[in-house]
Each structure stands twice: as C-alpha cells, then as structure tokens.
Amino acid sequence: MSNRGNVKIDERTVWEKIADQLRSRSMWMLHYCTGCGAVELPPSMTSRFDLERFGIGPMATPRQADIFLITGYLSVKTLRRVIYTYEKMPDPKYVIGFGSCTINGGIYYDSYATINRLDYYIPVDLYIAGCMPRPEAIFEAFTKLMEMIRKGEANGWKRYKENYEWYKQNQLRSLGEVIIHDEFHE
Amino acid sequence: MMSSTNNIGLEEILSSLNQLFEGVSTEKVDPRQYKIITPPEKTIPVLEFLKEKGYSHLSILTCIDWIAEKKFELVYILFNWGTGVTFVVSTYVNRDNPIFYTVKHIWPTAEYYERDVHEFFGVKFEGNENCEKPLILELWNDLPPLRKDFDPLEYSKKHYPDREYQKDAIHEARIIRGDVRGEIDG
Amino acid sequence: MGEVKLFFGPNHPGMHGNFSVHMYVEGDIVVKARPMPGFLHRGFEKLMERRLWYQNVALIPRICVPEPDINEACYAMAIEKIARVEVPERAQWIRMIVLELARIANHLWSFGGIGGPTGMYTSMYWAVADRDRVLDIFEELSGARIYHMYIVPGGVRKDLPPKLEDKIYHLLDYLEAKIPEYETFILKNRILHTRLKGIAKIDTETCLKIGVTGIGLRATGVPYDIRKVDPYLFYDKVEFEVPTATEGDAYARISLKPKEIIQSIRIIRQCLEKMPSGPVNVKIGEGSGLRIRVPRGMAYVHVESTRGEYGYLVVSDGGEKPYRVAVRGASYPQGLYGVEHLLPGTRIDDVPIWLDSMGVCAPEIDR
Q1: Does the domain made of C3-366 have the CATH classification 1.20.1540.10?
Q2: pLDDT at position A7 over 80
Q3: Domain segments of chain C: what residues?
Q4: Potential cystine with C221: which of B118, C3, C246, C264 (Cβ 3.0-4.6 Å)?
Q5: Which parts of the chain are coiled coil (chain C) (predicted)?
Q6: Which residue of C lies nearest to B34 if distances are taken between CA atoms?
Q7: Residue C366 banded pLDDT, cuts 50, 70, 90
Q8: Of C36, C42, C129, the CB nearest to A48
C-alpha cells in the first residue's frame, strides 16, 4: 500500500536513476526496536530466513542508516525520539510502517499513550499490515520497497521537506513539544 | 531452604495479627493466599511485622480505584520464599486527598512502585521525595490515567487524529456477516 | 576529569528493546544512573478495564513480547481462582507444555541476545534459528508464531492437533542433542568467557533486598523457583531440578540458561507421558458465549517466567469486564531500582551486558 499514491512523472536525471538502482541493492536498516514487531527481526536476519541475501543488514547509528522500520505501536514518548532520529538520518531515507498499529492504531485504538496514524507525523513509504507480520511479509515489503526505489516512487523524504510545516504542526499538536529531557530532573 | 524466622506456622501469624493489631481482618482466598485488610494507621506496622515473620518479598505495590465508595485501595503483595504463602495486604485511603506513607525504608524497590502509583492514580506517599517525578508518562497534563473517571478513548480522539477511511469497512463486514442489513457499494 | 552526561538508548546497538538509561560518566565509569522506562507504555491496565473478560485474552500477550504465554496463564488462572472453577486435568498438562515450550523459546532468545553486547554473533545465529523450531510447534498449535492466545480462562482454546506430540518429542530430542554443543562452543568460547566472567556481579543479600527473582537470584546460589515454592498447575507432580550457580556474575546467569532448558525438556516429557485424555476447557462464570460475568473477588497469581516472578492481580466487581488488573513485571526491581543503585561503578561497555544478563525486559516494565 503506497502512501497517498502521488505518482509523478519521473523527474530524475540519469545519474539519479543509476544511483537509485544501486541504492536499492544495499540498504542499511536502523537498529531501533520501537515496538513489539522488533521480535520478528532477529529471526528474519539470522540463518533461517537470512535477510542479507537481499542486501539488507542492521545498522547501529541513524547517521549511516537508510531504512527506518517503525515496528508496531508508537507511544508518544517514543514518537519524540523517532522524529529526532528520523531527522538525523541522511537523505535518501525510507520509512516502513510495520504492523497494524502504525496504520490505524490497531488493538490500541483507544489507548491514551499511543498514536493512531503514523503518516500524520512522518512520511511513510510502505505499510505492512498484520499483527504481527511474519518474516515472509517482511521480505515481501522489502522487495516491494526495492522496486519502489528503482522506480523513484519511494520519495517520502522529499515529501517531508516539501510539507515540513504541516508535519511539524501535526507533531506539535499531538506531542506538545519534541524536545528530549533527561531523567535527572535537576 | 527455611530459615528460623519463617518456621512460625501460618495459623500463629494470623491469630497474632488479630491480637496485636486492632481492626485487622483476614480472609482466606485459597490455602496459600490470604487477604489482610488493615486500617491505614496499622498498615505499616503490619507490613513490618510480616516482613519479620518471613514475608520478606514485596511482589508488587499497587492501587485500585473504588470510585463509588470514594476510596483508593492500596495493595501490598507479600510473598514468603520459605512456605510459598502470599499475603495480600490492603488498606483504604480517601479518594479526595489521597496521601499515604512510604514503605521504602522496608523495601527499597517500593520507591519505584510508589512513583508508579502516584503517576497513575495520584496517590502521594509522604517520605518518598521522588514520588512526584514523572516515570513512565512524559509531559502528562490530564487526570492520572488509571483513575476510573478518566476516559482514554476521548483523550485519544482529542490528541491523536484517526485515519479517515473512504468507506466503513467494519460496517461492510457486518453486512456481509448478516449482523445488520444494508447495501455494499462498489 | 569532568563528568559527562550520556543518554544510553533507546536507539543503541547494545540496548535490548526500547529502554533508556541516562547516566553521568567519568572517563568510562558510570557515576550516576537513572532508568528511563515508558517508551513502550500502551496503558494495558486501562485498556483491560474497557474490554470483556475474553477479549482481554487477545490483548494481554503483548505485555511481554518474547514470552507471551505467561500472561495468558496468569490471567486465566487468576480468573479461575476468583470464580473457583476447576480446570480439566488435560488442559492443565497442556498449559504446562505450552509454558515450558515458551520458556525454552525465551531462553534461546535471550541466549542469542547476549551475542549483541559481547560481539559473539554465533550465539545469536544458532539460538534464534533453534528458537524458530519451537515457534513452528506454536504455529501448528495456535496458528501464530509470536502471540498465541492459546490459554484461555477455563482451559485452553482447543485440543492438541493430531501428531503434534510426535513433533514435540522430535524437537526435544533435537534440542537435547544441541544443548551440549551450546555449552562447548558458546559458553566455553573464549570471547564470551572473557567478556562475561566477573562482570555485573551481584550478591544474594542485594537480590533479596531489592526483590530480584528468577535467574538473577538463582545465579547467587539460592534455589528459589516459584514452580517449587508455590507450585501452580501440576508442577508438584513432575520431577525437575532448580539449577543454581554461586558466582552471581553475568557468566553464571548466562550459563544457567542451557541448564534450565534441559530441565524444561524433562518437564515436557513427563507432561506428555502423564497427560490423560478428556475435555480441555470448561465454562467459566455466568452468562453466555463470550459475554461472561466473573463473581466479585480479588486474586493474585504468579508464575515463574524466565526472568523471575511474573504476577497478575485481578479484581472483579461482578461485571462483564475486569475492574482492575495489575501486572507485576518480572524485571521491575532490577530494571528500575537495580539500574539506579547497582549500575554506578561499572564501565560503559559493560552496561549492555548488565542489562541483558539481568533480563531487563522493557515492555513488562512499561506495560
């Protein structure tokens, strides 16, 4: 399910097209377990399902990562860190909403602590439905994302720049502030 | 496995509770679980007494909101590693101005349970200086969420916008299942 | 040298789950540490009050992600205690099989997890792949890999599928042959040995004072196990041992995991042998279908999870929904109080090992 379906005429230069071809073959996935879907990632990455054959591996720092997997529900407390982390990632960057909770709140639709719709706060390129998505669904999503990158359709990061004011306003509306404080209360 | 202090029989502890502390009532839940209801001023002496008798493990400290009776019930669950008996010690505090006393001098971990209870019910614990610091929630500006008069769905609707669907899929599913009558368009 | 404020997690390669520790460090020694939980807070205790007794079965496995079955078991047993219902014998044996399979799965999971902070990824590749074999059994049993929703109030959802028993036996044989390999190739491996020996040491007195249970306590030489001390289901009818170690360090805690798996295998074998045939669930409370009413009352039920005592306090006011459910996460004491008071003095690079070997599990702290 691609977001908003705003397929434009391909405006990429030849060099960008070549770059996108190469990008789709080597993607680093940010190691950030934002929710319970992260429990299916180690099985996908290790010997049984082996994610590396798709050219995808885990990456520790957001500064060097390409894919940001939002694995499941997002509490507002995590959303502050997610926005902070997303903005730290260099372009081009791709976001996958993992599980039903990112689409419409899922089983937590009436929770006071979790958000109901992820693409209201950060742009999402692809959603995986289900609770929780199986490793096969994760592969399906990744191959789809690779195809989207090759076609130049995965441009959530461009939308974030173009509609920055709108996203910022939504973030402030739900979160109050996006600043992160420490636990010392000094 | 048993130390000398917890060799005292269960019957003996229950009868001495009634003798030593006025107004304490005991109730059998099952052969290895008893509920003890104490008046607020006797709770801490009862807990100290039980800890001396081998009930040294504080499983959890939590709270129940009895809104109709206008009371908060504070629950201390004690476990004896020697005999495997659980005591559920509870006391009632006033709901309008909920203040109780800390037990962190008896069980250091209680400091965090008390912070938890303060955050979710608004009960203050005298003697616990960290009690009012936020722990799990961040920038919370509403009623303590586990109080019965707090409505999470309303809060969620106000703060976290829902996804707008073009058609009501749940309603259509009901029609297909035959729960309600109607027509499906498209 | 001055003190530096450091935010450790939630996005950190050494951090397991979504948890954070904020600390002051001097050089690479932690001087002051504060836990920061709450990233996975979904308000379960509130949501449970808004759903029917049976609807909650779908909700609660999500409280503890790697080992969901203990939630269902605690919740179901607490309701049965309030309603004073006796569960059919076969259902109790099946519950034990499910709980022990979940214990094996989670021990393998956390055994693999230690690969991250120590840099010994072999353990992760082996253990996670072996865990998948257990998940395949679960998939056949319940239809799902992670969240099974198999144990329901009154028994279990349905009887074991045909030929599953043979597959479980086959799995147990496989694991029994595999565990010695874990001990030889992973536990005796120099990387793991050097990295874990003497790290994150904790003594019995501290454990009992702050309420650490499970492997954390047993690694200091105290054989406290809720399955032995306060037996639930039929744990008093099976034979098993409680493995202990005396060192109380990270290595002792990790090395107990394969030993516990061996005991779980022993328990499952006995369950499969002793299990009679018969019904697997019984009606509970008043009312019809899924809209049941549970009589007024309050009960606390705890089980031994892989990280220690895991408990549910369930309160009913006689209605269609629970009045209050409180969850005691097994890693609450070490994850909050333990981090604040025991972490200072360790080095930054040992912090992930500390958190991992003590079994700090964020979702059950945050709820």
Answers
A1: no
A2: no
A3: 3-366
A4: C246
A5: none
A6: C299
A7: confident
A8: C129
Q: How far is A119 from chain B (nearest CA, A)?
A: 9
Check: CB of residue C16 under 8 Å from CB of residue C116. Answer: yes
Structure tokens of A32? 């950030």
pLDDT at B4: 40
Interchain proximity A134–C145, CB inside 8 Å: yes
- CA–CA gap between residue B59 and residue C196 (Å, rounded): 29
The CATH number of residue B89's host domain is 3.30.460.80
Mean pLDDT for all residues in chain C: 88
Q: Give the distance from residue A31's alpha carbon to the nearest chain C alpha carbon, in angstroms.
A: 6
Query: Is B149 within a domain?
Result: no
* pTM for this model (two decimals): 0.88
Residues in chain B: 186
pLDDT for the residue B1: 41
pLDDT higher than 50, residue C211: yes
Give C20's strand partners: C36
Nearest to B59 among C37, C223, C309 (CB): C309
Q: Where are the beta strands (DSSP E) in chain C?
A: 3-8, 20-26, 29-36, 151-152, 155-156, 286-288, 291-293, 297-305, 308-316, 324-328
Say yes or no to pLDDT of A5 above 70: no
Positive or negative: CA dihedral C203, C300, B48, B28: negative
Q: What pLDDT shows up at residue C312?
A: 92
Count of the separate structural domains present in chain B: 1
Whether residue A175 lies within 8 A of chain C, CB to CB, comes out as: no
State the pLDDT at residue A9.
61
Q: Which value does ipTM take for this structure?
A: 0.87
Q: Does B159 touch chain A (CB under 8 A)?
A: yes
Amino acid at C169: Y
Tell me what the mean pLDDT of segment B3-28 comes to. 73
Give the minimum alpha-carbon distance from A110 to chain B in angstroms, rounded to a whole number.
4
Judge whether B139 is closer than 8 Å to chain A, CB to CB: yes
Tell me whether A105 touches chain B (CB under 8 Å): yes
Q: If you ran DSSP here, which 8-state letter would residue C214 be given?
A: T
- pLDDT tens, C274-297? 888 888 888 887 777 778 888 888
Residue span of the structural domain in which B115 resides? 4-136
For the domain spanning A14-175, the CATH number is: 3.40.50.12280
* Cβ pairs A/C, distance under 8 A: 107
- The predicted-structure confidence for C344-356, as pLDDT tens digits, reads as follows 888 888 888 888 8
Contact between A111 and B152 using a beta-carbon 8 Å cutoff: yes
**Cβ pair B138:A114 closer than 8 A:** no
| Contact between B30 and C224 using a beta-carbon 8 Å cutoff | no
Domains of chain A by residue range: 14-175
- For A56-62, what is the mean pLDDT? 85
Q: Say if residue B8's pLDDT is above 70.
A: no
B120 close to C (CB below 8 A): yes
B2, B28, B35, B62: best mutation site toward chain C, by most C Cβ within 10 Å?
A: B62
Instruction: Look up residue B75 and give its two tokens.
Output: 């629950």
DSSP B39-67: -HHHHHHHHHHHHHTT--EEEEEEEEEET
A75, A112, A167: best to mutate for the B interface, most B CBs within 10 A = A112
Half-sphere exposure of B52 (CA within 13 A, CB side): 8
Interface test with C, best of A114, A175, A182 (most C CBs within 10 A): A182
Is residue C133 left, alpha or beta, with left meaning phi > 0 and alpha meaning psi from -120 to 50?
Answer: alpha
B161 interfacial to chain A (CB closer than 8 Å): yes
Contact C146 A75 (CB under 8 A): no
For C37-59, the pLDDT digits (tens) are 888 888 888 899 988 888 899 88
Q: Is residue B78 domain-resident?
A: yes
Helix, strand, or coil (residue C193): helix
pLDDT at residue A2 is higher than 50: no
